[in-house]
Amino acid sequence: MARAIIEVRNLRKEYPVEDETVVALDRVTLAIPQGQICCIFGESGSGKSTLLNQLAGMEKPTRGVVRIGGVPVSKLNERELAAFRQKHIGFVFQSYNLLPNLTALENVAMPLMFRGVPKERRDRVARSVLKRVGLGHRLGHYPRQMSGGQQQRVGIARAFVTKPEVVFADEPTGNLDSKTKTEVMTMICSFARDFNQTIVLVTHDPQMAAYADRIVTLLDGRIVSDQINQGVTVQSISAQSIQSAQSDQFVQSVQPTAVPSASVPSVQTV
Ligand SMILES: Nc1ncnc2c1ncn2[C@@H]1O[C@H](COP(=O)(O)OP(=O)(O)OP(=O)(O)O)[C@@H](O)[C@H]1O
Predict the structure, then answer these.
(1) Which of 92, 95, 96, 235 shows the greatest Cβ crowding within 10 Å of its Cβ?
(2) pLDDT tens, 30-51?
(3) Ligand 1 centre from 55 Cα, in Å?
(4) Cα 183 → chain centroid
(5) Are 175 and 148 spatial neighbours (Cβ–Cβ below 8 Å)?
(6) Where is the ABC transporter domain (predicted)?
(7) What is the C-alpha to C-alpha distance for residues 169 and 198, in angstroms, rounded to an integer?
(8) What CATH number labels 4-102+144-253?
(9) How far is residue 168's CA from residue 41's CA, in Å, rounded to a whole number?
(10) Looking at the predicted structure, is the pLDDT value of residue 251 above 70?
(11) How high is the ipTM of this complex?
(12) Which ligand 1 atom lies nearest to the CA of residue 13?
């Protein structure tokens, strides 16, 4: 089995609410191997978003540790976290979170700009990723000029344009109709397979969970089931099995006490 890129040990998250304490997560231990599409599944209030927030370093756990590529993200400060996310993490959001005053091309090129990729190259790469998601004819469109499905495809292009090792997808199909849901999930899985990326997908929708390799079910903040998905919906998507030198470099480069300074991965072939 591939090595774990995400490791969660004995995670607990409490929220103080007036004079009570809500325990949103308790004793969550999880190892997600590199290249796995792992679904965090559960009904409303089960703790899915709370878990994603701890994994992505958006919130500090009350107890326990989250490591990504060996880096204890739960212990990094804000500046270190920002740098870490920029280099290694992509996000796909339910509400797309595109910048309204930027075109599709500019939204997708933005993560490359933060990595210092020169304009000509970042525009070329962003264009090619937008073509891949079927939006080659919408490069100059603003979010308000696109449908929800098109906006989410821009969101996917933005999340994958830098080939991050891990992509967190929080209810990425939550606002979409059923045909567009299928397209969006197929796209996410296709990118992930091509570059051996790890996806953490949060959903309460069993149809979307069926795309994952593994389904971890939460109930009242605890893992109540952890199953390999035998009938993976995306089996038909070709995996180019790039046993990514990129990811190997990443795992080797990270030091527990320092934010890695990984170079910009080659994005030419996207
Ligand atoms: N900031 C907060 N303050 C207080 N309680 C919170 C906070 N965030 C989450 N909770 C509580 O933690 C529990 C888990 O919430 P969480 O949002 O993680 O569930 P979820 O599975 O993502 O739900 P949904 O599918 O509805 O988004 C709930 O009982 C919720 O009320």
Answers:
(1) 92
(2) 999 999 999 999 999 999 999 9
(3) 15
(4) 17
(5) yes
(6) 6-245
(7) 11
(8) 3.40.50.300
(9) 14
(10) no
(11) 0.97
(12) 12
